[in-house]
């Protein structure tokens, strides 16, 4: 049976912590394997407002239903993001708050196709055959400086405006998230995370943590623990998604 003929089973691990410094956790996680969607949202706007912004996105994604194709799944997710965007804008008006919003990093899988849809500096990674691929590009001031050669990755870790993002859900009428697509292979291991993880862990740190064959939940918990030990200045959230090739054979009579 080839990967084109078989489906995938998914093992999910999820963990989140407020960190060492922050009093509240404004991150939200969503795992909906029946729909083929996993998401990390990192709220901003202060306690309650940031909480609500990230939670609003996850609530909308929870209403996806069962898509019939990869294209249908992407369309449903984008429609839910637009709905969440309007709800967050209304929340900011009601509370007379200048800035309420949330980053989003979402993984979508249908059949053998995957897509990453994101806004802000939450990320999606893919570990395949021991090689870690960063699938998203941060929408942030730091990322723009790195792209122009004004900062190195190492210098970016201590840059004063490292938390300034250039795109988020709930900030403007058209959220305009970015999307990339690809093909799933058996054994793929995806990592979705808020920037609280990547602030204290390099890509190589993440690769080493993901190389293990341990359960997805244990990988997620250990990444959180590692980040807490390194100071965790921000909320930190992790989703691990392992793609297992289904080997169920056709049992029909010849």
From TrEMBL:
Top-rank taxon: Bacteria
EC number(s) from the headed UniProt entry: 3.1.3.16
Domain PPM-type phosphatase: 11-243
A single GO molecular function term of this UniProt record: protein serine/threonine phosphatase activity
CDD domains per record: PP2Cc (cd00143)
Keyword flag Hydrolase: yes
InterPro entries: PP2C, PPM-type-like_dom_sf, PPM-type_phosphatase-like_dom
Keyword entries, A-Z: Hydrolase, Plasmid
Name used for this protein in its record: Serine/threonine phosphatase
Naturally occurring in which organism (per UniProt): Paracoccus aminophilus JCM 7686
């Amino acid at each position: 049976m080839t990967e084109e003929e078989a489906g995938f089973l998914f093992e999910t691990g999820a963990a989140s912590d407020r960190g060492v410094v922050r009093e509240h956790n404004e991150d939200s996680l969503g795992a909906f394997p029946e729909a083929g969607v996993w998401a990390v949202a990192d709220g901003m706007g202060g306690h309650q407002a940031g909480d609500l912004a990230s939670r609003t996105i996850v609530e909308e994604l929870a209403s996806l239903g069962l898509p019939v194709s990869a294209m249908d799944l992407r369309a449903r997710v984008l429609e839910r993001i637009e709905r969440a965007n309007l709800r967050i804008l209304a929340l900011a008006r009601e509370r007379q708050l200048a800035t309420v919003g949330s980053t989003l990093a979402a993984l979508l899988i249908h059949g053998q196709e995957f897509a990453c849809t994101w806004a802000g500096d939450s990320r999606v990674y893919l570990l395949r055959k021991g090689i870690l691929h960063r699938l998203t590009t941060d929408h942030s001031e730091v990322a723009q400086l790195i792209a122009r050669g004004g900062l190195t990755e190492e210098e970016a870790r201590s840059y004063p405006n490292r938390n300034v993002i250039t795109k988020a859900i709930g900030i403007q009428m058209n959220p305009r998230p970015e999307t990339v697509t690809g093909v799933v292979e058996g054994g793929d291991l995806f990592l979705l995370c808020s920037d609280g993880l990547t602030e204290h862990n390099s890509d190589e740190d993440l690769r080493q943590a993901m190389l293990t064959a341990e359960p997805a939940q244990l990988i997620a918990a250990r990444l959180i623990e590692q980040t807490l030990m390194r100071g965790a200045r921000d909320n930190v959230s992790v989703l691990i998604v392992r793609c297992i090739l289904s080997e169920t054979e056709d049992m029909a009579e010849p």
